[in-house]
Write a structure and sequence with these properties.
Elements lengths: L2 E6 L7 H8 L5 E4 L8 E5 L2 E5 L12 E4 L4 E2 L1 H13 L8 E4 L3 E2 L2 H14 L11 H10 L5 H4 L6 H21 L6 H15 L3 E2 L1 H10 L4 E4 L23 H6 L10 E7 L2 E3 L11 H11 L11 E3 L1 E2 H11 L3 E5 L9 E10 L2 E3 L8 H4 L1 E8 L16 H14 L3 E5 L7 E3 L2
Parallel strand pairs: 1-10, 1-11, 2-5, 2-10, 5-7, 6-8, 7-9, 11-15, 14-16, 15-19
Antiparallel strand pairs: 3-4, 12-13, 16-17, 16-18, 19-20
Bound molecules: guanosine-5'-diphosphate (GDP), 6-O-phosphoryl inosine monophosphate and magnesium ion.
The site of guanosine-5'-diphosphate (GDP) has 21 residues, from helix 1 and strand 3.
Length: about 425
């Protein structure tokens, strides 16, 4: 059995899309298990940049089947737009894209609520992507959400009933709490009914779909969105997304039974980035961050916002490895450090004279803690065409070996550029 789960080990944008694209060659199925179109996974296809938001990154390979799992929240308009863009690239999705009927739908009021809630938080805003992700997951847990299966239901009035009730309730909240204009039931109904007709052919029961795939020996790759630091349970709460990008999310968000996972790959940049607000202990000073942002083109693939940049934080990374049961790391963007003279590694947090090596639960911890860092000499050589670990500059090898030593996890894949062939496995 070959089930591989790929997880963002930092705060998202680690290069998951690129690593999926590299790994998918010997897999049959790729499954997205959480998040929505807050994600932006960049893959180069025929040397052209392509960003996927909802559809698994394996779709660019013509023979792979892709499943959008039940843990994903789907904005149907965004999904149909993504399908259209793929078709314009000449990529056929017919019989290749499957969507779990029990996945929840992002509705127009979720986006309005997302924006209104952010506005009301003022300086404490989370810095969401504004895609309605949080409010959609709130409705799912509140048990008033609308699922794709409701939209495509045999009972043609089911969706209308649920929509009417939600619009009535949301309008009360929008007017009372936020003073925002109401959403219009009459307008949403036909728009979504049309989406339902278009999406109906993709709908599957993910449990039987995956069961059949596993029984027939298919190799499956699970594609996480966001990253461990943004996990609603294990991340820097409340500055997180509203789902579980971590290991458990792959199970609850896809419908695989108790089965053995052969590998968990944690993806991490050779440094760190974060978009949006929230604790980011290893954040660099402005000048250093500007330099990395420029070399690494650190601007959000979904919102275009500048990403905050930091050094690699092995306390955070080790925590991610532990909680996800990471069996190997994929380290991306090593080439971005090629010109940096001195590179820092965070090895602990200092608090009251103590060296703390555990990621805290109390986020106010970082207000008074200091970083314990090691300084490593850079390699000051171009790594972008290197394809073997032992061909890397010695200082780059030492830097990577130290990350592996501090996290206790081997490095399995190294990425030295955005293209598929700028990736290699470590033997
Ligand atoms: P994801 O959300 O984890 O899939 O990552 P994003 O696509 O949001 O951001 C990663 C960015 O880094 C994209 O622009 C990739 O093309 C780029 N990238 C990925 N790996 C490398 C690498 O090894 N080197 C460089 N220079 N860029 C990379
Ligand atoms: P990928 O899959 C980086 C961040 C937002 C914000 C927080 C909550 O490309 O790695 P949300 O809209 O989810 O309610 O926003 O999460 N965020 C991401 N940051 N990469 C992502 O996805 C992200 N998806 C959400 O910036 O801080
Ligand atoms: Mg991204």
């Amino acid at each position: 059995m070959s089930l591989v789960i790929l997880i963002g080990a930092q705060w998202g944008d680690e290069g998951k899309g690129k690593i999926i694209d590299f790994l998918v060659k010997d897999k049959d199925i790729v499954v997205r298990y959480q998040g929505g179109n807050n994600a932006g996974h960049t893959v180069y296809f025929k040397n052209k940049k392509h960003v996927l938001h909802l559809i698994p990154s394996g779709i660019l390979h013509p023979d792979k089947i892709c499943l959008i799992g039940n843990g994903v929240v789907i904005d149907p308009a965004a999904l149909l737009e993504e399908i259209k863009q793929l078709e314009q690239l000449g990529i056929s999705i017919e019989n290749r894209l499957k969507i779990a009927g029990n996945a929840h739908l992002i509705m127009p009021y979720h986006k309005v609520l997302d924006a209104a809630s952010e506005e009301s938080l003022g300086d404490n805003k989370i810095g969401t992507t504004g895609r309605g992700i949080g409010p959609c997951y709130v409705d799912k847990v509140q048990r008033c959400g609308i699922r794709l299966a409701d939209l495509c239901a045999e009972d043609k009035n089911l969706f209308a009933r649920k929509l009417r009730k939600n619009c009535e309730e949301k309008n009360k909240i929008l007017a009372g709490l936020y003073g925002v204009f109401p959403v219009n039931y009459e307008k949403i109904l036909p728009e979504y009914q049309q989406y339902g007709e278009q999406l109906q052919p993709f709908l599957v029961n993910p449990v039987s779909f995956l069961d059949e795939a596993i029984k027939s020996g298919k190799k499956i790759l699970f594609e996480g969105a966001q990253g461990t630091g943004l996990d609603v349970d294990f991340g820097t709460y409340p500055f997180v997304t509203s789902s579980n990008p971590t290991l458990g999310g792959a199970y609850t968000g896809s419908g695989i039974g108790v089965t053995s996972i052969s590998e968990v790959i944690g993806v991490s940049k050779a440094y760190s980035t974060r978009v949006g607000s929230g604790p980011f202990p290893s954040e660099m000073d402005d000048q250093q961050a500007d330099e990395i942002r420029k070399i690494g083109n650190e601007f959000g693939a979904t919102t275009g916002r500048p990403r905050r940049c930091g050094w690699i934080d092995t306390v955070q990374l080790k925590y991610a490895c532990l909680l996800n049961g990471v069996t190997s790391l994929a380290i991306t963007k090593l080439d971005v450090l090629d010109k940096i003279k001195t590179i820092k590694i965070i090895t602990g947090y200092e608090k009251n004279g103590k060296n703390i090596k555990e990621f805290p639960m109390d986020m106010s911890f970082f207000q008074t803690s200091k970083l314990i860092t090691e300084e490593w000499p850079g390699w000051e050589e171009d790594t972008s065409s290197v394809s073997r670990f032992d061909s890397l500059p010695v200082n780059a090898q030492r830097y990577l070996s130290r990350i592996s030593e501090l996290t206790g996890v081997k490095i399995g894949i190294i990425s030295v550029g955005p293209l598929r062939d700028q990736t290699f496995e470590v033997e």
